[in-house]
Amino acid sequence: MCDIIAPPTSTTTTTTTTHHDVDAFEARLLHALNESGLMLLMSIGHRTGLYETLAGQPPMTSHELAERASLDERYVREWLGGMVVGGIVEIDPNTHRYWLPEAHATLLTDRGPFNLAVYSQFFGLLGAVEDDIVRCFREGGGVPYSRYPRFHEIMASDSAQTVLPALFDDILPMSPGLIARLESGIRVLDCACGRGRALLMMAERFPASRFTGYDLSQEAVAWGQAHATEAGLDNLRFEVRDLSDFDTTAEPEAFDLITTFDGIHDQAKPLNLLRGIRRSLAPNGVYIAQDIHASSHHHQDRDHPLGTLLYAVSVTHCMTVSLAQGGEGLGTMWGRERALEYFHKAGFSDVQVHQLEHDVQNDYFVCRP
Description:
The chain has helices at residues 19-47, 50-54, 62-69, 73-85, 102-108, 121-127, 130-139, 151-162, 167-171, 178-184, 197-205, 218-230, 246-249, 270-280, 307-324, 335-345, and strands at 90-92, 97-99, 187-191, 210-215, 236-240, 255-261, 281-292, 350-356, 359-368. By secondary structure, the protein is of the alpha/beta class.
């Protein structure tokens, strides 16, 4: 799907590099190094509850903050140093008291609509497999899901801020009449469901409908089933299932609604899964797929607000976990053009693409036979 760009007609090109070019690029790289360090510190602040402890509170010393957060003071003090230098936390140099400005707390805690500190967790998680990724660059192959112990947890936090708040008011209504059908009672499947938080919400909201979740991860399925049982949702079940042969093992016309949330591009056999979804769909059924908003052409992703980050996630997770299964390795940034090609190959003749104003990261595809 990548564009083939013709080379220039001239056989020689001249590139002039100035000191200004070098200085500007050096400044950019130094900035990137500092911001990368900030992301690691931010992840620690999020996971230890330091931002939540600081938010809305008067200035406090490192000892007071450590005591309130039940953490070791020496580590807290050094972390605060990084936060001050990074422009996240303020300090009174006379009293050595620290505080988190309200504008920052809005974006780093649950006080605002989006907690951007959630995404800083990717850096530590994915950096931990760098040696494995370097080996794959040299030898091929991939890194298996088992090397990412917290990935489902982080992805659940991500979707909790993008997909879940929009599920009932924006995503399901993309298919006219679907809410009414769910209220009356239909059969619903979520493939590659992860922890199944969307299923949990739908099963509670629509008790007349029956819900099923498939995922390869035993840990994710166990989490979802435990929460379904705890909530008394007898209309929801989870199953550990490898979907790489879903094109032949899917039960025909078994579901009226099928969903995937960020679930296609890291599959071993994505087209097999999509063909299985088509096979499982009832004649009047609908398939709603959320996946990453991107182009299938690198040069068209230059202006993507999260483009570089998403390519990093692809190299260090989504692409490689597919290759680890002997799969296709589509990658996070497979793009809208390739997605549409795959949906049509799977047998969907009517595919509509939607975007949500609050969500720059995702496309939503509404597919019908």
